TrEMBL record:
<feature type="domain" description="PLAT">
    <location>
        <begin position="1"/>
        <end position="105"/>
    </location>
</feature>
<dbReference type="InterPro" id="IPR052970">
    <property type="entry name" value="Inner_ear_hair_cell_LOXHD"/>
</dbReference>
<protein>
    <submittedName>
        <fullName>LOXH1 protein</fullName>
    </submittedName>
</protein>
<dbReference type="InterPro" id="IPR036392">
    <property type="entry name" value="PLAT/LH2_dom_sf"/>
</dbReference>
<dbReference type="InterPro" id="IPR001024">
    <property type="entry name" value="PLAT/LH2_dom"/>
</dbReference>
<dbReference type="Pfam" id="PF01477">
    <property type="entry name" value="PLAT"/>
</dbReference>
Length: 178
């Protein structure tokens, strides 16, 4: 469920202006914005010079409109440069922080060593996931070794007996832990 059927829009910002909001209509793939897929679009615009940010989002319409966006890469045909905009977050009213659009600054991934790119992804992932650790949230982990649940309660108690079933009703969050 990481893809979307909603209409996706992008605005590209550079030192000489911006494109305005453009709908991404025709991908080089037959069905656009599917999970794990890379879509390629041609967006016509005047040359904006060096790019520094994008705003990307969708209209929130249609079934399954939530979308997990990893990154956007813009290839400038004039300078032959690639501009990378890392996201690694949900654009979904029911996930993450509920936003369906994101403002993403440029990250020149071609100049970053792999470790720095991983650190940027880690920071963005923590920004997206830290809400799970707010006060009042009960966390449940499933232990594959014992085949039981371990619960971390808001008052700092830990139930680590490894019960074989979820006796607390609806799971707030569940991770598979080895």
């Amino acid at each position: 469920n990481a893809g979307t059927e909603a209409d996706v829009y992008i605005s590209v910002y550079g030192e000489r202006g911006d494109t305005g909001s453009r709908q991404l209509l025709r991908s080089q793939t037959s069905k656009k914005f599917l999970k794990g897929q890379t879509d390629i679009f041609a967006v016509e615009a005047v040359h904006l010079g060096c790019l520094y940010k994008i705003v990307i989002g969708h209209n929130g319409l249609g079934s399954g409109n939530g979308w997990f966006l990893d990154k956007v890469v813009i290839k400038d045909p004039v300078t032959d440069l690639d501009y990378t905009f890392l996201c690694h977050r949900w654009l979904d009213q029911g996930q993450d922080d509920g936003n369906i659009s994101r403002e993403l600054p440029v990250t020149d991934a071609s100049m970053l060593p792999g470790r720095q790119e991983l650190e940027l992804k880690r920071e963005k992932t923590w920004a997206a996931e830290k809400w799970k650790f707010r006060k009042g949230i009960t966390l449940q982990f499933y232990n594959r070794l014992t085949h039981g649940f371990v619960c971390l309660y808001p008052d700092s108690r830990v139930d680590a007996l490894g019960d074989k079933k979820n006796k607390y009703g609806k799971v707030s969050f569940m991770w598979m832990c080895a």
